Amino acid sequence: MRITDIKTFPSVEGRRQFLVKVETDEGIYGWGEGGLSTRDLAIEGAVKHYREWLIGKDPMRMGALWQEMYRSQYFEGGRVLSSAISAIDIALHDIVGKALGVPVYQLLGGKHRDYVPCFATTSFGSGEQLLERVRLLLEHQWNVIRIVLSQPPTDDPDLFEPWESIPFTAKHVAAVREAVGPEPVLGVEYHHRLSVAEAASFCQRMPRGTIDFLEEPIRDECPEAYEALRSMVDVPFAIGEEFASKWQFLPYIERGITNYARVDVCNVGGLTEAKKVAGWAEAHYIDLMPHNPLGPVCTAATIHLAAAVPNFSWLEVRVSPTEGSTYNWEAYPVQPTLEGSRFPVPDTPGLGIEVNEELASSLSFKGWEFPHLHRRDGSHTNW
Fold it and tell me: By residue range, what is the domain housing residue 48?
């Protein structure tokens, strides 16, 4: 079997989804997805560079092709190249699973669990709204809930002031914990918008035991900054969704900085690289808590990863009673389906995903940006 074409689809609607289809001379094809939302054209360009020499290669040699994609250039790595490699690698796993007649998790070592537990996400504009949304999730059997940071209402949607957000978010999250009791797992997502001092202050403003994890409180470029924060607070950290290789995970795992590995199969280098990160994390008693903000192809690939590793906590999903859906469902006639707050592990060959290629091809590319946030003094800050 040989690769005959690699097609790109940078415009699937909903939250931006960048898809790749790898085709072979035996009629078997695979779907993959790349991360790095809003920079789809950059990923597409990288995939097209890889396509030039991947045509004619044997798709069954997934690991060797990963190494060739990563190492056959002087400027290796980086998020753009890693996202492109991720999309191709996921598609190759889909092909090999179909060719062998087995689900992808069999290629990763076999199934550890029959279903994949998930967590829901909710945001809020007021304390009353937050408590109402958390109670709605609990009523629907979502017992692991991530709360997105908030701040007092403002007329400027692109304004973010940390010292206005910190007391507001801390106060209302603490009130939720008091109202719902100790049983639900509650976490807070701060989307790397804080400094070390700000993140420490946020944690210290809540009674001990209020939250079970704090996700991405600061940016990841400096592990030493995270180590300083680690020494100031006793809340478990969930870090890693921005990491584009096992090497970026290295200090966070080896130095005990993260407690949940937020591996993203569409950014880290696909299933080939994610499985290596999982084994490394297992050796340090760290569970995976995968990042999954994209589309059903990413979800399907991550379900197979979650099924094939022993050290797993919860999978992020973008569908819940308070979130609705960010997917264009028509584009995915076959896709994973939630049963309550969990995904059953599929037994169909490959990923168990199908894409409406005609619809995906008909969508023209439209530029889209995440918010460009600023502070009151006009300076720019992290989204």
Answer: 3-105
